[in-house]
Design brief:
This protein is α/β, with parallel strands linked by helices. The chain is about 35% helix and about 15% strand. Strand 4, helix 4 and strand 5 (about 200-205) form a beta-alpha-beta unit.
């Protein structure tokens, strides 16, 4: 039977409408459960967490769905907690870590090299001793020290990355005093401009202990210098703001830092004693030379006398002097302008026992029961002290009777003492600066 075209057309329309209604029902009204793996939901802030209610619109598909979203949130939360705990741990470590301080040392006198290389045992770059600019850094106690020295270290051209300063100066004679005064005035301007807060001075004082010129700069007198480390037995020393400091070796004549070795300690030294130095007229040094000659001891000792003091050593004279120290059991140390002299420390460097003339020299230096050389005596220096060079023949006679084993043992003890003395001075210097500059920190 042939179906009319009109009825066929209506049938197609009806089928299309029915299919569309069925599809719409499935999309919008079906309650079929979709598995977690295939369900795609876009969460909205404030939406209830129980699905669709009261005929509300069903959740719609999201374009960037992550099937592990909940696990990722939990992982991130745990990671953030670990990071926060680690930050708190670092903060506690930082709080418990000892606080460190920065101090600069400006070496404007040769004694600064003794402080830096021999006492603090700091490095210097470049190693060339005649370089225009040399610097180094080290840590001691709670302090990070930096050191600058050389002719190129001039006012206004030193890195100022600190507010605490140690200035090393020479006040031995008037020309040196004038130079040192200019540096003190420069530092005073820095204090007044609040560039520097704390100042200490290491001073090679006058050999007669006439150091009045620096008095007005001391804080106790209205100045700005909180600490003074002063060479020689000055009556100013009180171990509160003025401390005695050792003279040390003659770094201005390039005397080096000597590292003891087995040969230095155990070698068989061919000479009993040595004296290489200037013999001043009408001095005890003339008496010393006469005693050596009259007793025939000048053949058992290395002696070189000169009538005029020379400020600089040649390479050859320095070598001869060091050789004499290394080959002698004893080093004779008569007084000069002051009892304390470089020779004492240089002899200690080589394990040659100083024989020291223990008498006071003219001037205003302290005259207490432990003077002269009170700093060395207080440290238990294992020297031979005499009051008259006429005692020397008896001393050298005893030397002849000593065995090599006894001499080696004494040499070792002297070197150990000198190393301990320098370490004590390092610790004292550091502790005094810490307590004075940073006691409130």
């Amino acid at each position: 039977m042939k179906i009319p075209k009109r009825k066929l057309f209506l049938l197609i329309i009806f089928a299309y409408v029915a299919f569309s209604l069925y599809a719409a029902y499935n999309v919008f009204f079906s309650t079929k459960v979709i598995s977690r793996v295939h369900r795609v939901v876009k969460k909205e802030t404030g939406a209830p967490s129980g699905g669709v209610r009261d005929g509300g619109a069903a959740p719609f598909l999201a374009e960037d769905w992550n099937p592990w979203e909940d696990e990722q949130v939990e992982y991130n939360s745990a990671l953030n907690k670990k990071r926060e705990a680690f930050k708190q741990h670092l903060s506690r470590i930082d709080k418990n870590k000892p606080k460190r301080y920065r101090v600069q040392i400006w070496g404007k006198a040769a004694i600064g090299l003794y402080l830096w290389e021999h006492i603090l045992e700091g490095p210097l770059n470049p190693t060339d001793k005649v370089a225009q600019w040399r610097e180094g850094e080290l840590q001691s106690g709670k302090i990070d020290f930096s050191f600058y020295t050389g002719p190129a270290v001039v006012q206004g051209h030193v890195p100022q990355d600190m507010n605490s300063l140690v200035l090393v100066l020479n006040g031995r004679e008037q020309q040196k005093v004038s130079y040192s005064t200019r540096w003190l005035e420069h530092v005073q301007a820095m204090v007044q401009s609040h560039t520097v807060s704390h100042v200490a001075v290491v001073l090679l004082g006058n050999e007669h202990c006439n150091n009045d010129w620096i008095g007005p700069y001391l804080k106790r007198n209205g100045g700005f210098v909180e600490l003074l480390f002063l060479v020689y037995d000055s009556p100013w020393v009180n171990d509160k703001d003025v401390f005695q400091w050792p003279l040390g070796v003659a770094t201005y004549r390039q005397f080096p830092m000597i590292r003891p070795n087995a040969q230095l300690i155990t070698s068989n030294r061919p000479y009993l004693c040595n004296f290489l130095g200037t013999v001043y007229k009408n001095s005890s040094r003339e008496t010393l030379m006469q005693v050596l000659k009259q007793s025939g001891l000048d053949k058992e000792c290395i002696t070189t006398a000169r009538e005029k003091w020379l400020p600089q050593e040649t390479a050859d004279s320095l070598r001869r002097y060091q050789t004499a120290l290394a080959q002698s059991e004893l080093t004779l140390s008569p007084v000069g302008i002051n009892t304390e002299c470089y020779r004492i420390y240089e002899a200690c460097s080589y394990g040659s026992v100083p024989v020291v003339e223990d008498v006071l020299t003219p001037g205003t230096c302290a005259a207490g029961p432990s003077s002269p050389l009170r700093l060395l005596k207080a440290a238990g220096a294992p020297f031979i002290f005499i009051s008259d060079w006429k005692e020397l023949p008896a001393i050298l006679e005893r030397e002849r009777g000593m065995s090599q084993e006894q001499r080696v043992d004494r040499r070792r003890r002297l070197l150990e003492w000198y190393a301990s003395f320098r370490q004590q001075m390092k610790e004292r210097f550091t502790e005094v600066i810490e307590e004075t500059f940073f006691k409130s920190g």
